[in-house]
Amino acid sequence: MEKWTEEISPQHSLLDLKLKEVWRYKDLLLMFVKRDFVTFYKQTILGPLWFFVQPLLTSLMFLIIFGRIANISTGGVPQIVFYLSGVTLWNYFAECLNKTATVFKDNASIFGKVYFPRLVMPLSIVVSNLIRFGIQFFLFLLIWAWYYWQGSNLQPNTTLLLIPYLLLLMAVLALGLGMIISSLTTKYKDLIFLLTFGVQLLMYATPIIYPLSEIQNSSPTIAMAIKINPLSAIVETFRYAFTGSGSFSWVLLGYSSAVAFFVLAIGAIIFNKVEKSFMDTV
Amino acid sequence: MSNTVIKVENLSKQYRLGEVGTGTLSHDLKRWWHKVQGKEDPFLKIGEANDRTAKGDSDYVWALKDINFEVKQGEVLGIIGRNGAGKSTLLKILSKTTLPTTGSIKVKGRIASLLEVGTGFHPEMTGRENIFLNGSILGMTKREIKKKFDEIVDFAGVERYIDTPVKRYSSGMYVRLAFAVAAHLEPEILIVDEVLAVGDAEFQKKCLGKMKDVSVNDGRTVLFVSHNMAAVKSLCNKGLLLSNGEMNSYGEILDVLQDYSKINMSETSLLKSNFVKKNQEDGLFDIYEAKILNNKLQNQCIFNTKENINIYVKYKVQKDLVGSVINFSIENIANESIIFLSFDTDLEDNRLNIRNKGEYEAFIKIPSLILKPGFYFITFNTGIANFQTFNRVEKCLAFEVTLSDENETFISYAEKRIGIIAMPLLWNTNKLS
Question: What pLDDT is attached to residue B268?
Answer without folding.
Answer: 47
